[in-house]
Amino acid sequence: MALLGDTLPRLLRERARQSPQDVALREKEWGIWQRVTWEDYLGHVRRTALGLTSLGLRRGDKVAILSENCREWLYAELGAMSASAVGVGVYPTSPAQEVKYVVAHSEATFVICEDQEQADKILEVGAELPLVRHVVVADMKGLRRYRDPRLLSFEELERRGAEHDRAHPGLFDEMVDATRAGDLAFLIYTSGTTGFPKGAMISHRNILAQARAATEAIGVRAGDSVVSYLPLCHVAEQIFSVYLPLWRGLTVNFAESIRTIQEDLREIGPSVFLGVPRIWEKLQASIQVKIQEAAPWRRALFDWALRRGGRASEARLAGRPPGPGERLGFALAWLLVLRALQNHVGLRRARLTFSAAAAISPEVLRFFHAIGIPVREGYGMTECTGFSFVQRAGEIRLGTVGRPIPGLEYRLAGDGELLKRGEVVFQGYFKNPEASAETLRDGWLCSGDVAEQDPDGQLRIVDRKKAIFVTAGGKNVSPSLVENALKVSPYVKEAVVVGDGERFLAALVQIDFENVGQWATERRLAYTNFRSLTLLPEVQALVAAEVEKANAGLAPVEQVRTFRLLDKELDHDDDEVTATMKVRRKTIYKKFAPLIADIYGKAQG
Prior knowledge:
Elements: H1 8-18, E1 23-29, E2 32-37, H2 38-54, E3 62-66, H3 71-82, E4 86-90, H4 96-106, E5 108-113, H5 116-124, E6 134-137, E7 151-153, H6 154-167, H7 171-177, E8 184-189, E9 199-203, H8 204-218, E10 225-228, H9 235-248, E11 251-254, H10 261-268, E12 272-275, H11 277-293, H12 296-317, H13 324-345, E13 352-355, H14 362-370, E14 376-381, E15 386-390, E16 403-404, E17 409-412, E18 417-421, H15 433-439, E19 440-441, E20 444-453, E21 459-464, E22 469-470, E23 476-477, H16 479-486, E24 492-498, E25 505-511, H17 513-522, H18 530-534, H19 537-551, E26 560-565, H20 585-591, H21 593-604
Parallel strand pairs: 1-11, 3-4, 3-5, 4-8, 5-6, 6-7, 10-11, 12-13, 13-14, 25-26
Antiparallel strand pairs: 1-2, 8-9, 14-15, 15-16, 17-18, 18-20, 19-20, 20-21, 22-23, 24-25
């Protein structure tokens, strides 16, 4: 049942009063799942809010959170909001200088850290963060001998909050009552693919509008369970770990880490799952690699089951119910093979599955539909507080992102740019009026994405406006479309397509070290590290064959004529990808300029 609170702290208080003993959160400690009820959840948030208040937190102050996903992340975020302060997410994979930029730019006065590793990042640049008054650490291991007066444990913070509560009974409820729908609730920093990250200002009104619209559009319901594994400073994870659980009463299960997500999925068995494209590609690759290792009769059975599943799913995707033969074929395939594949990826119990945050290859989606996991695509932006468009059940069209969420208006500008307006649109960028004015024009949010509308009314995202380039032949090319086709291969982890102003397209390819390494080991090919693996002629031939497979599904102007293997993995620390693993194209073009020049120089010679 959706509640009526108009801010997140009010929603939490209502949820705790309505369903005090229902399980809100689950997290592993020493291999055992610990449960937190809604009543306990509110208690932790109460103590956190009052602990921060006792240390001097004021209305409008910023509280930065630097941590992997865990219970303390949510207690800190909602505790800050309960005091009419503002949460600020910081990517835990960010190096110290990036952390310093976000903490300094947001003017955070408190920083909540997960452990010693994250606290060290703050303390390393502490002299350059004069506004930071307190650094609260959830796990104090290794910090016993630290003498920085700003340090205290999360346990100590909650203890102070309990004391403050006894000294000032009723203060927490007064603070929650003082929160307003129009208040700034959260600063979500963009991934910064084209420059410094920008702090998107998200209000409680934005969040609740997103929660209402997303609930209606995707069909979550009370009692659903989700897995929290994407960074909580990303708007996509905020939807599924914070907004929807508070609005509809979902249970949040914290994965041990993003690296163990497949094992976590098998253990948790969520009913709702959001995967970014790289996760879906990884899950597909895990099946493909296993099948390639299997005996010939097992591979034949897998191919047969995939064909049967594919026929039934193609019927559904075409908008018609499968015929009796297709239903029977799918049922047999499910009993013999597909059920095991669903268990292997941990999604057999999943009722709703989504892909969002970036474009995904239709071939990857077709694979999951064939094994009985009907992944729906969605499209959104930080600046829209999450989802803008999502496919509805029974209306899945591969390559589209569905219809707008309730309450969102949209139109296409003359150059195809998608423009949006509605209650979910953010308040602007923090301390950046120029960027705000450029993005918010005449009441419309300029998305920066080029889109097309299908005849049936569903939207198709072409690419980022800045990413589209023109070949020497005058043809417009969307590099992400070609890159996604290449990344269908289990041996390709990343691809960057080049060819602006050139006669043909080429690609810089990063191999999947784990899968290609296993392939090489099975063939007794010697290598010592990533670079030596890429230099093997057999690996070059393997990738060449995968490129040809991708080309078979592309138009002639989109086909990759040649490629070069990168001799290193693209790294966040080297400024080649963002914290969310999006490629920084300008950096790649600059850093690998000699390699790109070599491609076209040899061709011209």
